[in-house]
């Protein structure tokens, strides 16, 4: 119950225009400011700089241009053109060619055709040299997102992957279906506030589902990504992989930028570890969801805010 209330509180804050304005003013102003703990920067140049540091530590990266809920065709076209520029910067910089994309950035709220057309524009430009992970958003978009992924997969776009959230009751069956199709899956717990009719509300239930889906993916999926900072989930994964003789080259761990860097480095000694590197000026909703997942970070953030105001 406390987990659900905490998440609800931070989701409410994420929707506050006043707090968004304050955060935008102070959050990324200095290199040691509070948001930079979790956000690589506001520009692709800053994100590439962070990516170079991460790769130098022996870790892998996926770049995530933050933003969601684009409501017009013109807005979705503008974001798509921004992604074209991002792709060019990645190629020129020579960093790992791995992107995470949200479909509501590309017009899913406008209509399915607009979204698919924009996604095709990006996939045609990246070709097989990139891997593009289609991020999962709230449960309102789950069916539509998976439908778009499966449609493009059937059309021969094999450089894409999906994300499933263990908090959603439907995800176990989705994991089996995507595995049968051969679509790579990233498994996460889920960061959105969801109703009880579609999602587990207790942490123990979410964790139990995570373990069940993880086992399905290790048994059946093509190179699954187990995305967690939770040592218990990591231990469950490594134990099951050893028990089933799943090679360490057949799956990877994924972790969030700025969270448990010590664990990232230690885990990378034995396994592939990929860091989710978010950037862009639409960082506030993402940041609030991270706080909702890890309330212990609030003390760090408040201390940083007071430091900013004294500066």
Summarize the structure.
By secondary structure, the protein is α/β, with parallel strands linked by helices.
Oligomer: single chain
Please, how many domains?
2
CATH C-level label of the largest domain: Alpha Beta
CATH architecture descriptor of the largest domain? Alpha-Beta Barrel
Let me know the average pLDDT.
Answer: 88
How far is the first residue's CA from the last residue's CA?
38 Å
**Run of helices and strands:** HHHEHEHEHEHEHEHEHEHH
CATH third-level topology of the largest domain = TIM Barrel
Kindly state the percentage of residues in helix. 40-55%
Radius of gyration: 19 Å
Counting H and I runs of at least 4 residues, what is the number of helices? 12
Derived structural class? alpha/beta
Q: What is the strand arrangement across the widest sheet?
A: 1-2-3-4-5-6-7-8
Q: Strand tally, please?
A: 8
Major sheet description: 8 strands, parallel, barrel
Tell me the strand percentage band: 5-15%
Note poorly predicted spans.
300-311
**Quick one: overall form?**
globular
What keyword list fits this structure?
311 residues, alpha/beta, 2 domains, 8-stranded parallel beta barrel, 12 helices, globular, disordered C terminus
